[in-house]
Amino acid sequence: MKNPEYWRTDTEHDAVFSLVVASDFLALANKKPHYWRWFVLAVHSAVQGSFALALTNGNVFHVQKPGVSSRMLAALESESYGLNFPNPHMDNFLRLYAKVRQAQYLRSGAIPLPVDERHESALISLDEMRDEFAHFNAKSWSIEIAYMTETAAVACEVIEYVFRSGCILWRSDEAEAEAARALELLKAALSGEG
Asked: b/e string for 160-178 if b means 16 or more Cβ within 10 A?
């Protein structure tokens, strides 16, 4: 089979695949510890992807950094719309998390993520771990495996809530079912049942 010239993905597929590879990397990490890095990156990506799906709400404005969304709106209102439309730039992880807790950013009738100290603490930790792994510097670092898995388990609770809250308008039943399956597999693996 000839390799295709292009690979296409989107927010929905990326969020689902991030859940799938988080399970894969978790299984690999138990044999080859280097995969803990990729496990954390995949879990972070899965949470961020769920937030992006929840905030899309028919447009991309709520997913963007505040200055970018303002420039997008201004470009839409101008006569030279096509010439001055800014490139999208996703808001940071914790601001996306803050947005999914506010009804004004979600689809009508969707239930915002409730404020929960456990969720907030875990997502702050997940974001910090992701930054440490993604921007690994000249250093040595030891991190408890239980800390990574416990943080990921709470992150799964957040993803599950977002999936069930009515925030996401899935484009296909197949993608929604695959996301649910992937989340259940990751939760089972984290609890030792997988």
From this structure: ebbbebebbeeeeeebbeb
Q: 166: which 2 tokens?
A: 């009515």
Q: Where are the domains of the chain?
A: 24-191
User: How many secondary structure helices (H) and strands (E) does the chain include?
Assistant: 8, 0
- For range 83-99, the mean pLDDT: 79
The dihedral over CA atoms of 11, 16, 19, 25, expressed in degrees to the nearest 10, equals -90
Structure tokens that stand for 163 in this block: 């999936």
Handedness of CA 112, 117, 122, 127 (dihedral sign): positive
Q: b/e string for 37-64 if b means 16 or more Cβ within 10 A?
A: bbbbbbbbbbbbbbbbbbbbbeebbbbb
As a three-state string, the secondary structure of 19-39 is HHHHHHHHHHHCCCCCHHHHH
Q: What is the pLDDT of residue 80?
A: 62
Q: How far apart are CA 100 and CA 33, in angstroms?
A: 33
Question: What pLDDT was estimated at residue 42?
Answer: 98
Residue 46 has pLDDT above 70, yes or no: yes
Question: Following DSSP, what letter does each residue of 106-141 receive, concatenated?
Answer: S-TTPPPPPP-HHHHHHHHHHHHHHHHHHT--SS--
Does pLDDT of 90 surpass 70? Answer: no
What residue ranges in the chain does DSSP mark as E strands?
Answer: none
